[in-house]
């Protein structure tokens, strides 16, 4: 466990260098400068943070140094999942605070869109479950192109999610989940846990066999 904590702390320190960029993006698209559009900050900023956290070791020398440490490769893989989830939660909380502060300035009330927050968490965990196995499979060089492709998908998916939230059929589904919080919570947790576990074992199997 101490080894895992140190590996997660390493990822957090590496992401810290990009905080200025994330803060500028959050302020611009939270509603302080332009009219508030929560989907722009919730839909993109958590994805940016996760990609930065995962790609923080995207150098051959870094990878070779990590595998030379007295740490099992399974721990290296697990640390990426843990640090990504920690940063995802931090990013969503940051989005809530910044977006709520913008609403307070313009409308006088601190508002939290619970559906958007939960939707962001669920979609980003599923995104992580797909992204990490591809990251370990493609390796250092391939992951650079993967990051570009995933950012395009996040940008395109942001508009798709916004349109879905405004769809009448989706509103019926959202209302059903809201009316059955226990069943929807158990279902969501089960799906996310299954996706995360399967994703982890796939990533671990790939990285353990990779020649660095």
Radius of gyration: 18 Å
**Percentage of residues in strands:** under 5%
Shape: globular
Distance between the termini: 25 Å
Q: What's the tally of helices?
A: 8
Low-confidence parts: none
Largest sheet: none
Helix coverage percent: over 70%
| Helix/strand/pairing category | mainly alpha
Count of individual beta strands: 0
Instruction: Summarize model confidence as the mean pLDDT.
Output: 76
The succession of helices and strands, N to C, reads HHHHHHHH
Quick structural summary:
The chain is mainly α and 212 residues long.
Give structural notes:
This protein has 212 residues and is an all-alpha fold. It contains eight helices and no strands. The protein has helices at 2-15, 19-29, 38-54, 60-68, 73-107, 114-165, 168-179, 181-209. The mean pLDDT is 76.
Topology:
Layout: H1 2-15, H2 19-29, H3 38-54, H4 60-68, H5 73-107, H6 114-165, H7 168-179, H8 181-209
Helix pairs in contact: 1-3, 1-5, 2-3, 3-5, 3-6, 5-6, 5-8, 6-8
């Amino acid at each position: 466990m101490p080894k895992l904590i140190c590996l997660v702390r390493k990822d957090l320190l590496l992401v810290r260098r990009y905080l200025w960029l994330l803060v500028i993006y959050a302020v611009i698209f939270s509603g302080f400068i332009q009219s508030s559009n929560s989907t722009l900050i919730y839909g993109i900023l958590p994805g940016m943070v996760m990609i930065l956290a995962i790609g923080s070791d995207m150098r051959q020398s870094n990878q070779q140094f990590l595998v030379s440490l007295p740490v099992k490769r399974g721990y290296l893989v697990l640390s990426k999942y843990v640090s990504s989830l920690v940063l995802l939660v931090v990013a969503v909380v940051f989005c809530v605070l910044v977006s709520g502060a913008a609403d307070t300035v313009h409308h006088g009330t601190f508002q939290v869109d619970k559906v958007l927050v939960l939707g962001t968490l669920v979609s980003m965990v599923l995104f992580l479950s797909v992204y990490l196995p591809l990251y370990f499979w493609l390796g250092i060089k391939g992951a650079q192109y993967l990051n570009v492709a995933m950012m395009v998908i996040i940008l395109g998916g942001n508009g798709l999610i916004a349109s879905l939230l405004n769809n009448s059929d989706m509103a019926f589904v959202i209302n059903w989940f809201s009316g059955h919080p226990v069943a929807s919570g158990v279902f969501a947790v089960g799906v996310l846990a299954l996706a995360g576990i399967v994703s982890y074992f796939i990533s671990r199997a790939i990285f353990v066999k990779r020649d660095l």
